[in-house]
Amino acid sequence: MEKFIELITQMNSFDLIQVIFWGLAGAISFYFSIGNARVWTSISIGFFLIFLSQAYGINPWGHYQKLTAFHYIVGTVAIMMITHGFLEYYVFCRTFEISGNKLVVYMSTLGILAASAGFLIINPTPSPNTIRNIRMVENAIWVFLCVMNMELVRKIYLAIKGSDISKGFIAFGLVFLLIFLWRGSELYLQVFQWDRDWQDILTLMTDEVSDIDQYMGRVEFSREVRRYAGLLSGVSVGATFSYIYRLLK
Q1: How many domains does the chain have?
Q2: Is 44 helix (H, G, I), strand (E, B) or coil?
Q3: CATH no. for residue 157?
Q4: Nearest 5°: phi and psi at 69?
Q5: What is the pTM of this model?
Q6: pLDDT over 90 percentage in the chain
Q7: How far apart, in whole angstroms, are the C-alpha atoms of residue 38 and residue 52?
Q8: How do residues 131-167 score in pLDDT, each as one tens digit?
Q9: How many C-beta atoms lie closer than 10 Å to residue 87's C-beta?
């Protein structure tokens, strides 16, 4: 408990607010998946997993490198679940057919996460550089699949245009745009090695001279985009699921 309180006090207040909003969004999305049709299950679980991936920031055991790596893997699984869910929904709009049931989705997700945890357990402890690479891969997958999901949302909206629920998919389009900005700005910083944590590692482990001082304007801009887009994406997800839930009741 003392370790948890220490981590909370050390966190940037803005980052803490972001995690809280994603926690709220995750809770709403998970509750939504329980109370609605099977076609929403993968989408809702995926958004819930985003919160779990973000929770490493307030995790009292976050200094364990394998656990940190696992959080990033959870984030990758999250966007894969979300994309699979929107693909299912688009097929449903065209064929009115959906396969499987909720239990299969829940158990499959747990199986993937358990296999990922097992992979980390049987392998050596990842170095800070390896963890950074895992995070970078996660962000890259998020950026590309967010673009794909925006296109899927557009197609779903056109397929159900005129119905009340179609407005909810406009909101999902905004959600993915915000997530794209959030993850994309972080990926941009990582590609040019301008992410703050990596700067310390770079200084300690190599003699490479960073060029971050020459581009502080765009670095600070990207950091602000990451902060605000991350916060607003959590708020928008919670609001979107709340809105759709009221429409489907």
Answers
A1: 1
A2: helix
A3: 1.20.1070
A4: -60, -35
A5: 0.86
A6: 40
A7: 22
A8: 889 999 999 999 999 999 999 999 999 998 888 888 8
A9: 15
